[in-house]
Amino acid sequence: MIWDPFDPVSYLVHVGLGFLALSAGLIALGSQKGSPLHKRAGRWFAYPMVLVALSTFIFMFHRFLPLAIVMALATLYCIPSALRAARYTEYTGRRWDGLLLTLPTLLCIFTALQAIRFSQIDGAPVLGPCVLALTFGCLAAQDILLLKRGALPHNGWVRRHLTRMVLAFTFAVMAVVRIGINFGLTLEQTVVGPLLVAVLIIAYFYRRYPVEDMQVSSATH
Fold first, then answer.
1. Which of 27, 113, 169, 194 is deepest in the core (most CB within 10 A)?
2. Coiled-coil ranges per the record (predicted)?
């Protein structure tokens, strides 16, 4: 008998890990950055969410959903990139950043192609894929600039870490409201709404952690 990933036990494990990760993510976002609670909650968000993203590919063999694949790959990019920014060493980091760069680049190309394809279909959603393509393009551009510079100010790494964690949380929320629970939202509402909230949170972190006149450092922070 071929194993069915949609059997009740497997599906409950998948959903349970996702619920655990999202709950921990909320605690991490709301706690003092750098505090023991923030770090513990961040780990409880990051590692289960990676498992959820990986298990998504197994589910997709039985029921292929392009948006689920995009969200899973985005999560598998954002969380390792965020963790690496939190434990930065220049020697090991540049290779890892170069490898991770392939994911937002491919996602940018794929969602841009989807936007072009949808634009040729009357009534098909176009804004959502365009916003996703822009988001992944910005992430790829940041990675390219980092590879060229080789280092960031201390708060630059903090920003990078928080930005990617916020986006990982946002992509998980998108998957829940569009695929998991399915609130009946359109693709535009599923993508634009959560990303708008994410941009506001990221803008707050950018304001809270300025990088002007700070010495560039490649040391672990």
1. 169
2. none
Is residue 143 domain-resident?
yes
Cα 74 to Cα 53: distance, rounded to the nearest angstrom: 9
**Which three-class secondary structure state does DSSP give residue 174?**
helix
CB atoms within 10 A of CB 47: 16
Most confident residue range from 46-55, 94-103, 134-143: 134-143
Copy the structure tokens of residue 156.
Answer: 């630059």
Residue 210 has pLDDT above 80, yes or no: yes
Which helix (H) or strand (E) segment holds residue 153: the answer is strand 152-153
Number of domains, the chain: 1
| pTM, 2 dp | 0.87
Q: Which amino acid is at 150?
A: G
Residue 74 is assigned to a structural domain of this protein: yes
pLDDT per residue as tens digits for the range 51-100: 989 888 887 777 778 888 999 999 999 999 999 988 876 556 677 888 89
| Within a domain: 5 | no
Q: Which residues contact 24 (CB under 8 A, 6 or more apart)?
A: 41, 42, 44, 45, 48
